[in-house]
Amino acid sequence: MKRILSILTAVSLGMGMLSAQNDIAKEVFDIKAGDLKLSLMVGSDNRLYQLHFGDADKKVNIPEKMPSRELEFLPPYGNGVITEPAIQATHTDGNTSTELHYVKRSTEKLSDDVQQTVISLQDPAYKFYVDIYVKCYEDAGMMEIWNTIRHDEKGGKVVLYRYASASPILKAPSYWLTQFNGRYKREATLEEERLGEGVKIIDSKLGIRAHQYRIPSFLVSYNHEAHENDGEVFAASLKWPGSFQMAFDMDWNKNLRVLTGINPLGAQYYLERGGTFTTPAILWTYSKNGKGETSRQFHRWAKDYVIRDPHKDRPVLLNNWEATHCDFDDNRLVSLFDGANRVGAELFLLDDGWFGNGEYSRDDDKHGLGDWEVSTKKLPRGLSYLTKEADKRKVGFGIWLEPEMVSPKSNLYNSHPEWIITQQKREPILGRHQEILDLTRPEVQDYEWNIIKNTLSPHPGISYVKWDCNRFVTQPGSTYLPQHEQSHLLIDYNNALYRLMDRFAKGYPDVMAMLCAGGSGRIDFGSMQYFHSFWPSDNTDPLGRIKIQWGFGHFFPASTMSAHVTRMGKRHLKLAIDVALSGAFGIDLALDKATQEERDQIADGVKLYKETIRPLVMEGELYRLVSPYENPLAAMSYVSRDKDSAVVYLYQTEDGQVPAVKLNGLDPEKQYTLTEVSLAKGMQPRIPTQVKSGKELMESGLGNPLSTQFDSAVLQLSAVK
Ligand code: DGJ
């Protein structure tokens, strides 16, 4: 992307500027990203006030009198602000209050589509500075906001207690919050509630693999629950893999301030003179046409600016975890390569269990993490033998890594017990029988990089990595960090983690990668810039997956959601295939033990996916049609951008009938041939092949004959030329 280095100020451009019409406003200006507008005012008291955040078409009036302090855009603690503060610092002289005054701003055009504004604030009494960054992606309607905090105060360190990434104020008669919470095997479960006065907090305190119980993404809708195709909806997501806090503070005037950022719990930061603290960015988008549009905006933005190789087909892969766990040898793996080749899979992904030797052989989850030498017992001919055998069968080869962890039963732990995250005078608490390596420590940073390097560099046949992370923090302490900076651990860890991921992505640009954390315990757009897909859940029972993938789809595009056919739940194989067909398709079952009929059915699914459905999973736009959270049916579709083709998925999650499904996103003028695909051998289509106009399909809908739990149908739509 060509970076246009013209630095422009809004004043000189005359753009987005309202002239100050009275003596309370020194300056008023707008920042806009698609349909989302932020209007700010510099008051005659030099403070920065928010006038509006939301609909870009709304005319914003300059207030007649000075706004109250509750409307400061980035409220600092202690000198008159009485609501939740965004910034809280204790200065070197012990003063616990901060005052932030506007100094200047500049706008830089980073490309035709992207513009970045930096607003500089300073405490008039201290050399304490906050710069607010607002990066606007016009096409996707995405606003990315973060802050940097610096100081030049004499006499030591400033202590930062709060450092929100942003804290815009929403204004409506009433607000509904949608969060995506859950737990292991129930990730991203959608839950919606009406907000009342006071502070509602949704957060994570897990530090690392921090999103197990809640992802750092949410929706706020105005006046009613979030609808798919109408109503004002905001969608937001924090780029941070660690603990987060989202505070929804509704004041006595029904203003809703939304403070988002790193969870400040136990994480005060001692900022040295001249140092800079950078908050993670929060992404905001907005639509007047419901949450369907905010999801598509997130997907468009993610594909244009975040996800690695967004247009490169995600390979159909065969993963061995569900089939073998740690119990395999190279003959078994080679027989699985044969199976992969026969069903048309493009890559074999070797999961956990391939490393560790002697008493620390990784034969279960209690041993060997940290000892990344190939198991001589299971794989005596090494990884090169496997990559070559896979290649002979025209199957790529991928491998599982969990670089951040160590088993107490390992050589690594015996040599470096001080490398783990733990606290003095406390009994170490294990999680999945393992400890976390302290990534703030430079030797650990080198060690983890070497795990990646020593696995990939000698084996150029490895073209895929699954990066796992199977526990969270329970005792946040470091033997590396100084005594008074123990509270930096989780911030420094996660910044070091991003650096490691960045080094991996840059060092191995041709190696594709799946982000995993015991399911999706780590899922944020900061991490996703280093990955091609993520593993939404260890729950691969299609019935569970329908709701989990539905939740994630509110933010993450289908091409990033790994979805594998397994026998979990022992559902109909057709349902398992049909659910996997809606994501980055893969298989995780013992193909060598499956019946010929099952193998044939899977091979048909793979063929259908590669020939017809994958282009729509990769590039199509998501339209959610019938929610499984409210109905016995889940229905959704991906429509090509030219509206010439689409795929529709119908999954019956319970018994009951939804007689017609109204499609969406089609061209009303076009005629579409509609064909039921993904039919098991001998199965007659339940929905007859037919030609209908986009208008009819969207207005009257498609007759849905399904009514029995576990039934499913996949329909292909092609515009008649
Ligand atoms: C958790 C992951 O979610 C699984 O897919 C598998 O890779 C295991 N870890 C391996 O330990």
Tally the beta strands.
40
- Major beta sheet summary: 11 strands, antiparallel
Q: Can you tell me the overall shape?
A: globular
Question: Over all CA atoms, what is the radius of gyration?
Answer: 27 Å
Report mean pLDDT, rounded to a whole number.
96
Structural class comes to alpha+beta
Strand content: 25-35%
Total helical segments: 13
What share of residues is helical?
10-25%
Residue windows where pLDDT falls under 50 for at least 5 positions: 1-19
The N- and C-terminal alpha carbons lie at a distance of 36 Å
Bound molecules: (2R,3S,4R,5S)-2-(hydroxymethyl)piperidine-3,4,5-triol
Task: Write a structural description.
This protein has 721 residues and is of the alpha+beta class. Helix content is 19%, strand content 31%. The protein is built from 13 helices and 40 strands. The strands form 8 sheets. Strands 1, 7, 8, 9, 10, 13, 14, 16, 17, 21 and 22 form an 11-stranded antiparallel beta sheet that branches. The chain has an 8-stranded parallel beta sheet with strand order 30-29-28-25-24-23-32-31. A 6-stranded antiparallel beta sheet has the order 33-34-35-40-37-38. Helix 8 links the parallel strand 28 (462-467) and strand 29 (512-515). The radius of gyration is 27 Å and the shape is globular. The two termini are 36 Å apart. The relative contact order is 0.09. Residues 1-19 have low confidence and may be disordered. Bound molecules: (2R,3S,4R,5S)-2-(hydroxymethyl)piperidine-3,4,5-triol. Residues 321, 351-352, 400, 468, 470, 516, 518-519, 535, 538 line the site of (2R,3S,4R,5S)-2-(hydroxymethyl)piperidine-3,4,5-triol (DGJ). Residues 321, 351-352, 400, 468, 470, 516, 518-519, 535, 538 line the site of (2R,3S,4R,5S)-2-(hydroxymethyl)piperidine-3,4,5-triol.
